[in-house]
C-alpha cells in the first residue's frame, strides 16, 4: 500500500482509536521534555500539544505507509481562546496571530521518516483543506525555538521568521 495522507476524521470509526494511539506514540517519542515532567504536568503538556487536537479530528492528518503511522500534523484553522489559555506564551504573538497568521499547526514524524518529504506533504494537505474554508485564514503559524533543527524545514516550506521573543521563534506563512 503506498503512502497516504489521511484525515483522522475520514478513517473508519473502528480504526480511529488505533490510529490516534499510533499518533500519540509519535508525540511521546518526539517530546523528550515530556518524560522529565512530573506526572500531572505530563498530562497538561500532552493535552495542549496533542490531546486537544483529538477533540476535533477534522484537523488531524496522518502519514501512513503500509498501515504504519509515520507522522502526523495537528492543527487548527483559527487559533482560539482555548489555545491561548493552554499556551500563555502565545500572548507574546497575539497581534500577529490575529492580524496575519490565525491558523496554526504542530507536526511530528518518527525519526526514520524524516527527510522523506512527509512533513511537506502533511503541510500541503493541511493547507489545501484550510484553503477550502470560506473565508480561509490569511496565514498559518508555528512557534518553535530559535535554535531548533526544524527552523530550516519550515523555511524550506515557505514560512518566514517573524518574531523572536525570549526562547520562542514565531514563524508565519501567508496563504
Number of helices: 6
Helix content: 25-40%
| Oligomeric grouping of the chains | single chain
Uncertain residue ranges? none
Count of all domains: 1
What does this structure look like?
By secondary structure, this protein is α+β, with helices and mostly antiparallel strands. It has a single domain (4-174), classed as Gcn5-related N-acetyltransferase (GNAT) (Aminopeptidase, 3-Layer(aba) Sandwich). The protein is built from six helices and seven strands; from the N terminus they run βααββααβαβαββ. The chain has helices at 16-30, 39-54, 81-86, 94-99, 118-130, 150-156, and strands at residues 4-7, 60-65, 68-76, 103-109, 139-144, 160-165, 168-174. The chain has a seven-stranded mixed β-sheet with strand order 1-2-3-4-5-7-6, with helices on both faces. Helix 1 crosses helix 2 (39-54). The protein is globular, with a radius of gyration of 16 Å.
Question: Which characteristics define this entry?
Answer:
26% strand; seven-stranded mixed beta sheet; alpha+beta; 175 residues; 36% helix; Aminopeptidase
Quick recap:
With 175 residues, this protein is of the alpha+beta class. The termini are far apart. Helices cover 36% and strands 26% of the residues.
Write the SSE topology.
Layout lengths: L3 E4 L8 H15 L8 H16 L5 E6 L2 E9 L4 H6 L7 H6 L3 E7 L8 H13 L8 E6 L5 H7 L3 E6 L2 E7 L1
Parallel strand pairs: 4-5
Antiparallel strand pairs: 1-2, 2-3, 3-4, 5-7, 6-7
Helix pairs in contact: 1-2
